[in-house]
Design goal:
Layout: E1 3-8, H1 14-17, E2 27-32, H2 36-39, E3 47-51, H3 56-67, E4 75-79, E5 95-98, H4 103-114, E6 128-131, E7 134-137, E8 142-145, E9 148-150, H5 154-165, E10 171-172, H6 173-181, H7 190-203, E11 211-214, E12 218-221
Parallel strand pairs: 1-2, 1-3, 3-4, 4-5
Antiparallel strand pairs: 6-7, 7-8, 8-9, 10-12, 11-12
Helix pairs in contact: 5-6, 5-7
Length: 229
């Protein structure tokens, strides 16, 4: 029996999100999306079933938040036929299932998504930071964006790592100078702007918005944030 956390905008029931799940012998507990932090602590479930049948953007952001946890949970995303085409690797989900799937298919997907790693599986990466589609390996000083390696200088790496370690928090230029360059650095705050500009260029037009400018304050890293229309 699998312990499943069902995440949806309003803590909907399994019958409303994925009817076949109600017919299976698993423990399913419904939660609202803002319960994400609690799910990654003690008593964590074996699997998250994520409701993407209505708010696709919210489902994507929730999945990316879960992937940024220190011990990420496997995520099975439920979508409509129309929503299937929007799902991408950057959403960081383990598998996708249509809301109309039958019990046999849902059981198979739950079993595969929640299965522990086998003897031949690679060891978990203990020193890898993750935030949405960005992964940072502190041991090898490498950064990947949706699986694609980024060629960063040492300071670009350190700046991105610091921002990713504090997702959503805004830092002033002076704070970033002291944290990344050190108190003994005598350069001006323009150094931060230059490195932010270079980082955004290397992230590319589809992902540069992950580093947010807060006017008259500084910068932050916001995993899963949508670019402005």
């Amino acid at each position: 029996m699998t312990h499943i956390a069902l995440l949806s905008p309003g803590a909907r029931s399994a019958g409303a999100v994925l009817p076949a799940l109600e017919l299976l012998h698993h423990t399913v507990v419904g939660h609202a999306w803002d319960r994400v932090p609690a799910l990654t602590g003690p008593g964590r479930p074996d699997l998250v079933v994520l409701d993407g049948t209505g708010d696709l953007v919210g489902a994507r952001n929730t999945a990316q938040s879960l992937s940024a946890a220190q011990r990420p949970l496997p995520v099975l995303l439920v979508v409509t036929e129309g929503g299937m085409a929007a799902v991408a690797a950057s959403w960081c989900v383990s598998d996708v299932v249509l809301e109309t799937a039958g019990p046999a298919e849902v059981e198979a997907r739950v079993r595969l998504a929640s299965a522990p790693a086998g003897p031949g599986a690679p060891e978990p990466e203990e020193n890898v930071l993750r935030a949405g589609s960005v992964s940072i390996d502190e041991d090898s000083y490498t950064v990947k964006l949706a699986g694609r390696p980024l060629n960063l200088t040492f300071k670009e790496f350190e700046l991105l790592k610091f921002l990713v370690q504090h997702v959503g928090r805004v830092f002033t230029r002076h704070q970033l100078l002291s944290e990344v360059w050190g108190y003994d650095y005598y350069g001006g705050t323009r150094t931060v702007d230059v490195h932010i500009r270079r980082l955004r260029a290397k992230l590319g037009s589809d992902h540069e918005h992950l580093i947010t400018t807060v006017r008259n304050v500084g910068y932050s890293f916001t995993a899963g944030r949508e670019p402005a229309a």
